[in-house]
Amino acid sequence: MGDALVCPVCMGNTKVIDSRSTGDHSIRRRRKCVNGHRFTTFEVLSNEADQLDMLEKAEKELLAVADRLEKLSNHIRAAMKGKEQ
Fold first, then answer.
1. Which residue from 22, 23, 56, 67 has the least number of CB within 10 angstroms?
2. In the structure, what pLDDT confidence band is assigned to residue 14 with cuts at 50, 70 and 90?
C-alpha cells in the first residue's frame, strides 16, 4: 500500500499488527518488526485531495480483486463443465 517502514531500533522489516482511526482524520498503527520491537505510527490525511486519492486507489484495488475473482470463477466453471452428472 505505501512505502514499507523499517524498525527505528534495528532497521528490520515491520508489519502492522493493529490499526485504529483516531477520529481526527488520522490512523494509529501499531507495528512490530521481525526482531520483536514494537512501535506506533500515526498517519494523517493532510487534505481532501489526499483523501480522494486514497479512495480512488482503494476503489482500483477492489475492482482489480473483483476482476481476478471473476476470472477464477470462470476458470472453475470451465473446469467443471462436462464433469456434472
1. 23
2. very high
What would the grid cell of residue 46 be?
493532510
Q: What is the mean pLDDT of residues 34-48?
A: 87
Residue 3 has pLDDT above 90, yes or no: no
Whether the predicted model's global pTM rises above the 0.70 cut:
no
Of 14, 55, 58, 57, whose CA–CA distance to 34 is shortest?
14
Residue bearing cell 485504529: 20
The number of distinct structural domains making up the chain is: 2
Q: Are residues 67 and 84 in the same domain?
A: yes
Which residues span the domain enclosing 75?
46-85
The residues near 5 (Cβ < 8 Å, ≥ 6 apart) are 14, 31, 41
What radius of gyration do the chain's Cα atoms show?
A: 20
Regarding whether 33 and 6 lie in a shared domain, the answer is yes
Query: Domain check: are 35 and 54 in the same one?
Result: no
